[in-house]
DNA sequence: ACAAAAGTGTTCAGTGTACACCCATGC
DNA sequence: GCATGGGTGTACACTGAACACTTTTGT
C-alpha cells in the first residue's frame, strides 16, 4: 500500500506528477457591498488530509499538454471554463505529501461572473473568500498565497482585470475589480483618465440603465484575453 | 527499447520528469569591447538530437528538492555554483522529445565572473554568446528565448544585476551589466544617481586603480542575493 | 430641490531624461 | 596640456495623486 510506504521504499519510486489550479472569480458578497475575490475548493474524500479543503487537481494524462490538463481538470471538478489560464509554479518539495512524493505543476485561472454563476456547488465543492480559506490540505495555503501575490502584481501592470468582467462594463466596474484585488480604494477621476488613455478600451454608445443615478457609459475591451509571457504562446 | 516505442505504447507510460537550467554569465569578449551575455551548453552524446548543443540537465533524483536538483546538476555538468537560481517554467508539450514524453522543470541561474572563469570547458561543454547559440536540441531555443526575456524584465525592476558582479564594483560596471542585458546604452550621469539613491548600495573608501583615467570609487551591494518571489522562499 | 454617481479640469510634487559642466588621472 | 571617463548640477517634460467642479439621473 502506497500510503504505508516507509522512507527508503519511497525514495526508490519516481515522483508523481500532478496538475492543480487556483481559480479566482469576483463576487458581490452582500447586497450593497463591493465585490470581493472568491475561489472554489474541493473537499478531500480520501487520505491524506481527508475532509480538508484543497485546490482542484489531479494527475497529468499522457496525451494532453500541461495547460490542457489544467483546463480539463478544472472543468471536471468545478464545471468552470476559465477566461484566463496561466502557469503559476512547479512545487516539488520533498514532504508535500506524506506518502508518495508528488511534484505539482500549478496553474491559476480567472473566470468571468456569468461563468462563475454557472458553477455548480456541491457538498464537495464550495466557494470561499480568497482571504478566508482556513487550513487547507498539503501545502495549498502557501500556493494560494503565492497565487494571490501574482494576481495582485499582474493586475497592476497587465490587462488581466478584464478577465473578471463581461463583454461590456462600466469604468466603475473596472475600478471595483482593481479595488477588490489590490485591497484599496482608487480615485475615480484619475482611474477613469488612465483607462481612457488605454488604446484597447473602446467606448460603446450604450449606457447602463437601472442605476440610482446618472447612467454610466458602457465600454468594451478589445485586447486579447490570454496570458502574454514574452516568447511563450 | 524506449526510443523505438510507438505512439500507443508511449501514451501508456507516465511522463518523465527532468530538470534543466539556463545559465547566464557576463564576459568581456574582446579586449576593448563591452562585456556581453554568455551561457554554457552541453553536447548531446546520445540520440535523440545527438551532437547538437543543449541545456545542462538531467532527471530528478527522488531525495532532493527541485532547486537542489538544478544546483547539483549544474555543478556536475559545468562545475559552476550559481549566485542566483530561480525557477523559470515547466515545459510539458507533447512532442518535446521524439520518444518518451518528458516534462522539464527549467531553472535559470546567474554566475559571477570569478565563478564563470573557473568553469571547465571541455569538448562537450562550451560557452556561447546568448544571442548566437545556433540550433539547439529539443525545444531549448524556445526555452533560452524565454529565459532571456525573463532576465531582461527582471533586471529592470529587481536587483539581480549584482549577481553578475563581484563583491566590490564600480558604478560603471553595474551600468555595463544593464547595458549588456538590455542591449542599449544608458546615460551614465542619471544611472549613477539612480544607484546612489538605492539604499542597499554602499560606497567603500576604495578606488579601482590601474585604469587609464580618474580612478572610480568601489561600491558594495548589501542586499540579499536570492530571488524574492513574494510568499515563496 | 436634493443626493449621488458620472465625468471634466486644474494644480502640484515627484521622477525620468537630456545635457552642460567640473574633476582627476594617464599619457 | 589634452583626452577620457568619473562625477555633479540643472532644466524640462511627463506622470500620478489630490481635489474642486460641472453634469445627469432617480427620488
TrEMBL record, chains A, B:
<feature type="domain" description="Nudix hydrolase">
    <location>
        <begin position="14"/>
        <end position="152"/>
    </location>
</feature>
<protein>
    <submittedName>
        <fullName>ADP-ribose pyrophosphatase</fullName>
    </submittedName>
</protein>
<dbReference type="InterPro" id="IPR015797">
    <property type="entry name" value="NUDIX_hydrolase-like_dom_sf"/>
</dbReference>
<dbReference type="InterPro" id="IPR036388">
    <property type="entry name" value="WH-like_DNA-bd_sf"/>
</dbReference>
<dbReference type="Pfam" id="PF00293">
    <property type="entry name" value="NUDIX"/>
</dbReference>
<dbReference type="Pfam" id="PF21906">
    <property type="entry name" value="WHD_NrtR"/>
</dbReference>
<dbReference type="InterPro" id="IPR036390">
    <property type="entry name" value="WH_DNA-bd_sf"/>
</dbReference>
<dbReference type="InterPro" id="IPR054105">
    <property type="entry name" value="WHD_NrtR"/>
</dbReference>
<feature type="region of interest" description="Disordered">
    <location>
        <begin position="210"/>
        <end position="233"/>
    </location>
</feature>
<dbReference type="InterPro" id="IPR000086">
    <property type="entry name" value="NUDIX_hydrolase_dom"/>
</dbReference>
Amino acid at each position: 500500500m502506497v500510503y504505508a510506504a516507509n522512507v527508503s521504499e519511497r525514495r526508490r519510486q519516481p515522483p508523481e506528477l500532478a496538475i492543480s489550479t487556483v481559480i479566482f472569480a469576483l463576487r458581490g458578497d452582500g447586497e450593497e457591498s463591493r465585490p470581493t475575490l472568491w475561489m472554489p475548493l474541493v473537499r478531500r474524500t480520501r487520505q491524506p488530509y481527508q475532509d480538508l479543503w484543497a485546490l482542484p487537481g489531479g494527475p497529468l494524462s499522457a496525451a494532453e499538454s500541461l495547460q490542457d490538463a489544467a483546463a480539463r481538470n478544472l472543468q471536471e471538478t468545478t464545471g468552470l471554463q476559465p477566461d484566463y489560464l496561466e502557469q503559476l509554479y512547479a512545487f516539488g518539495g520533498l514532504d508535500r505529501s506524506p506518502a508518495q512524493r508528488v511534484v505539482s505543476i500549478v496553474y491559476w485561472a480567472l473566470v468571468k461572473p456569468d461563468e462563475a454563476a454557472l458553477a455548480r456547488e456541491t457538498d464537495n465543492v464550495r466557494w470561499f473568500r480568497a482571504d478566508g480559506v482556513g487550513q487547507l490540505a498539503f501545502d495549498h495555503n502557501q500556493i494560494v498565497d503565492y497565487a494571490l501575490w501574482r494576481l495582485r502584481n499582474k493586475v497592476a501592470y497587465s490587462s488581466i482585470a478584464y478577465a473578471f468582467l463581461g463583454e461590456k462594463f462600466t469604468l466603475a466596474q473596472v475600478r471595483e475589480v482593481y479595488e477588490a484585488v489590490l485591497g484599496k480604494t482608487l480615485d475615480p477621476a484619475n482611474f477613469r483618465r488612465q483607462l481612457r488613455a488605454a488604446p484597447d478600451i473602446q467606448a460603446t454608445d450604450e449606457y447602463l440603465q437601472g442605476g440610482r443615478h446618472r447612467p454610466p457609459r458602457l465600454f468594451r475591451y478589445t485586447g486579447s484575453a490570454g496570458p502574454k509571457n514574452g516568447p511563450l504562446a
